[in-house]
Amino acid sequence: MKIQLPEKVHNIIETLQSAGYEAYAVGGCVRDSLLGRTPNDWDITTSARPEETKRLFPRTIDTGIQHGTVTVMMNKEGFEVTTYRIDGEYEDSRHPKEVTFTASLEEDLKRRDFTINAMAYNEQDGLVDIFGGIRDIKAGVIRCVGNAEERFTEDALRMLRAVRFSAQLGYRIEEATRDAIRRLAPSLQRISAERIQTELVKLVTSPHPDYLRIAYETGITKEVLPEFDLCMETPQNNPHHCYNVGEHILHSMLAVEPDKVLRLGMLFHDIGKPQTLTIDKEGITHNKMHPAVGAEMTRKILRRLKFDNDTTDKVCKIVLYHDQEVALTDAGVRRAVNRMGEEIFPMILEVHRADINAQSDYRKEEKQDKLARIEHIYEGICSRKEAVTLKDLAITGSDLIALGMKPGREIGELLHELLELVLENPELNIPEELQSIARRRIQEQIPFEQKHL
Prior knowledge:
Blueprint: H1 7-18, E1 23-26, H2 28-34, E2 43-46, H3 50-56, E3 60-64, E4 69-74, E5 77-83, E6 85-87, E7 99-101, H4 105-110, E8 120-122, E9 126-128, H5 133-139, E10 141-142, H6 148-154, H7 157-169, E11 172-173, H8 175-184, H9 193-204, H10 212-217, H11 220-224, H12 226-232, H13 245-254, H14 260-268, H15 273-276, E12 278-279, E13 285-286, H16 290-304, H17 309-321, H18 330-340, H19 344-357, H20 364-384, H21 397-402, H22 409-424, H23 431-445, H24 448-451
Helix pairs in contact: 6-8, 7-9, 12-13, 13-14, 13-19, 14-17, 16-17, 17-19, 19-20
């Protein structure tokens, strides 16, 4: 089985081999190459000790030398080269206390997480597949190398990685591996929020974000996202819905493109429904105020998972605005864009479409028709470049000062008043018109005595 190694990777492997050492491309880059994908990174494993690797290359960086890893720089591009090793005892469900270097490639591959990630390759020996990685790729299976409980006890994050790989590749998780996740999921509490966040984002932006269901079924979300478990247990006995809250969320994620903010927006758009659930005398469920409650919850969750402020703010706005009515008029759409923000509004349209697609057929055509009309109006507003924010106004604070206003809060108030006029009547957004209106407002604010001095 032939893999086309990048020239720089080939050169590193050949340099190590020429010095008498073994060296192979290893792990995810081999898996992705076999799947016909372009690897993001190329990792190399070798029998050479770190100090021996450093002697062979003019520029290296000690990125993880205590664990045998040296980054070899090739024309500003870095490649991790790691010595064959056996991991010692894991004391934090994530990192080994110590590692022992070994001369055995098999021992090194044995410590890796899943069979599809435990293959090595070089052009001299071809593919080294000791643990059945090719077999599991052909069968579409995620399986731990060796004993699953041992692998997950070593590194608890591997449980979430199993679901993530399953979602990225569309593979099923082998039963013994799945059973071990169910037993050991509570140990995920020892994993840092940053690590959880990274895996969660990769999962929800995968081709199968609905595989988050597997994380729920195996107890993972109970530990890392318990708010989602409540959604999976909250019914929606309502003509607009055909799924419980959690299943609706999973189906809605499938209906938007794999953008991080959009997928997270769908994941959290109804997260406030369990907290706002009411049931009327007919047994119909309602969730009034769930967007506002959900936005507040989402901010707390994203902060807990250490998301950056920009992502947090955008996702929270999506949750807050996802269910808001937009009037079917030009002015109504302009006001909605102003209220939600120019960047968020088109996302809200995508979210609204996905939300409808994950609902029942009740009035679905009516909802889709209304959304299409809003989109048509919005496209017209954009094509005509009509003002929707203060920065679009044909008058500025400096212009108002030039007309005689004193700097202060009143300038902002008048600009907002002018924007309100323009949102309703976009044809007013020309300098002469706005200056004329502003002059009248300024004159109205001048006391009678000052006007007649």
